[in-house]
């Protein structure tokens, strides 16, 4: 099968791809993969990334710091007793995925990855073939009910019990006119009391570089990536209790011994964790 042979190559061969993958159009998952140092990206993705690097050469550092926040949150949530995770817009598998971090503490933790990009599904299925507590499902955040009612999702997750929903670096790919706040509200309504929602989001800290990066994302090929203020990001948690330290710059969110304290980039991304009362 084209998809299988493609997955086994180190760098993808654009002439041997499943039909649903168009290497000519940059994809969010593949551009992000580039920033995380991955190999699953094409020239069009690297061109979109280069437009960002032109105004913000430290894009890879920001990508790393964003993943570090995700890992800290995963550990904290497992330690707090959460045993189910729904990671929406999970991206291409990278080192230290949510299930790997969670399973270091408890191998019974169940994790469902959701992404609408067929590349993520192909890689995820290959990576998770032997996993019984973790799966990846192709679905779209634009239709939250389609995620919560999906039989494959429900086979692993019990939404009558607390779950941690991750919306990490995905809501900033929705324009205001798409009303991403309605999406987080819908998710809040579908999860049980005691559930959590983690959001990371491009952060408009007032630094002019935010608008420059936004412009590069919008006009450099990718076509999405909006920076929002702390207040706009806090609104995603409507009806939930935002936990300490609130919505803050990436490395200020519950830093641990490995969190860089001298970062000049982390204020481009904010993170926050809330609990449904
Ligand atoms: C920037 S990546 C973030 C990956 C990961 N959550 C992280 O923070 O490291 C955003 C991911 O969201 C996915 N995505 C974008 N729009 C989506 C949608 N409408 N439904 C599901 N996934 C989506 C992309 O394919 C991509 O893999």
UniProtKB/TrEMBL annotation:
The protein's matches in CDD domains, at most eight in alphabetical order, are given as: AdoMet_MTases
Q: Where are the transmembrane segments?
A: none
| Region named Disordered | 1-20, 254-277
- Pfam families, alphabetically? Methyltransf_19
Q: Fetch the InterPro entries from UniProt.
A: SAM-dependent_MTases_sf, SAM_dep_MeTrfase_SAV2177_type
Domain of life per record: Bacteria
Name of the molecule in the record: SAM-dependent methyltransferase
């Amino acid at each position: 099968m084209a998809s299988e042979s493609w997955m086994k190559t180190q760098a993808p061969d654009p002439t041997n791809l499943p039909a649903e993958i168009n290497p000519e159009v940059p994809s969010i998952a593949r551009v992000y993969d580039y920033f995380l140092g991955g190999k699953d990206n094409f020239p069009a993705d690297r061109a979109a990334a280069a437009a960002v690097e032109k105004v913000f050469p430290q894009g890879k550092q920001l990508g790393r710091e964003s993943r570090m926040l995700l890992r800290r949150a995963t550990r904290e949530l497992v330690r707090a007793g959460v045993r189910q995770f729904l990671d929406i817009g999970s991206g291409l598998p990278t080192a230290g995925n949510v299930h790997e971090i969670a399973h270091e503490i408890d191998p019974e933790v169940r994790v469902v990855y959701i992404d609408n990009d067929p590349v993520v599904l192909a890689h995820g299925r290959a990576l998770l073939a032997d996993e019984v507590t973790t799966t990846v499902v192709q679905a779209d955040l634009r239709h939250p009910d389609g995620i919560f009612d999906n039989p494959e999702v429900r086979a692993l997750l019990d939404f009558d019990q607390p779950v941690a929903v991750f919306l990490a670096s995905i809501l900033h790919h929705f324009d205001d006119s798409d009303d991403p706040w309605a999406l987080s509200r819908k998710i809040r309504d579908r999860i049980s009391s005691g559930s959590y929602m983690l959001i990371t989001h491009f952060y408009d800290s007032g630094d002019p570089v935010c608008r420059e990066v936004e412009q590069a994302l919008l006009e450099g090929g990718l076509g999405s990536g909006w920076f929002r203020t702390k207040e706009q990001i806090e609104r995603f948690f409507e009806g939930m209790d935002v936990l300490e330290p609130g919505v803050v710059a990436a490395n200020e969110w519950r830093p641990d011994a490995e969190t860089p304290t001298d970062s000049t980039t982390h204020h481009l991304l904010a993170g926050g964790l809330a609990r449904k009362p």
